[in-house]
Amino acid sequence: MLSERRLEVLRAIVQDYVGTEEPVGSKALTERHRLGVSPATVRNDMAVLEEEGYIAQPHTSAGRIPTDKGYRLFVDRLAGVKPLSTPERRAIQNFLDGAVDLDDVVGRTVRLLAQLTRQVAVVQYPSLTRSTVRHVELLSLAPARLMLVVITDTGRVEQRLVDTQTPFGETSVADLRARLNSRVVGRRFTDVPQLVQDLPESFETDDDRATVKAVLATLLETLAEEAEERLMIGGTANLTRFGHDFPLTIRPVLEALEEHVVLLKLLGEASESGMAVRIGHENAYEGLNSTSVVSVGYGSGGEAVAKLGVVGPTRMDYPGTMGAVRAVARYVGQILAES
User: Fold this and answer.
1) What pLDDT is recorded for position 272?
2) Contacts of 323 (CB under 8 A, 6+ apart)
3) What are residue 88's phi and psi, to 5 degrees?
4) 123 near 106, Cβ under 8 Å?
């Protein structure tokens, strides 16, 4: 266990290195921070921190930089989440409140996160597997053609055309719409197949039963198609500001960002609503070993329906980034709850 003083020295090293991009020496630490001890004592503390693997000497200069282990301890023990200012919170609300649909919400969220953190922003679309049905609409477009519209509790809207073998009148359309909604509204999408499996048998004629089966087949196909997780990424150009933070080249990072499966796995490590911070080599994908990922769940109510976060170099303003990610997730959750 490190002493409180050595923890303070580590905190100061992380803060200075993140702020200056330069390795930090004992003289600079005593000048910038009120550590209450001599430079010789700080040098001794730095030697212990280096021996324990929390800081390292990148080259022959006297300065030290934090290691992944040092950043980990900083995040776990030393870094509070930096609250956003009132103007920042107002700007988030104003920017997101103008969204017109779910695609717009996700797009605005990506741009906002990238601007606030100056990192790469990643936002997962709300998953149908964690969503519930808000409403099912069934419309007659022609005597033998229907439109099925499924609306989720997160504002996601899916539309499909259904061609039937025989005409299906307006009265029958209204009847089927009412029966469908009575069974599935407020229920999880994963429960829908079981909830509707016997619905065709409740209709009297063979033609009507065939039409109901066609509608249900389209509904279940929609659920299967949309089960695939979707992501939106923004701010990749921000990485060019941190070229010297990546060994040799940022190409492995860019290649990893193109692999949505990798990003989904990283985001998936966030707990339902809690925040996850993965630092450097804690990221299993080798291409992201020089980055940190800050992610959190978002959703309406207390349950997360998806994740959002940012990817940036390990030399990151963790308190500010964590505060921005948490604040944006909270506002997106409110929008989904009100939509």
Assistant:
1) 56
2) 81, 82, 83, 84
3) -65, -45
4) yes
Query: Hey, what are 10's tokens?
Result: 């580590």
- Residue 194 · residue 239 · CB < 8 Å: no
Could you give phi then psi for residue 185, rounded to 5 degrees? -60, 130
DSSP annotation of 40 reads H
Please give the DSSP secondary-structure letter assigned to residue 81.
P
Of 212 and 223, the one with more pLDDT: 212
Could you tell me which of 319, 273, 318, 280 has the C-alpha nearest to residue 296? Answer: 273
Q: Say how many residues make up the chain.
A: 339
What's the pLDDT at 137?
92
150: which DSSP letter? E
Q: Please, are residues 2 and 52 in contact by the beta-carbon 8 Å criterion?
A: yes
| Residue whose tokens read 């499909």 | 160
Alpha-carbon distances of 337 from 47, 118, 207, 273, 302, rounded to whole Å: 52, 28, 40, 15, 11
- What angle do helix axes 318-338 and 86-97 make, rounded to 10 degrees? 40
C-alpha distances in Å from residue 328, one per residue of 130, 196, 257: 20, 37, 21
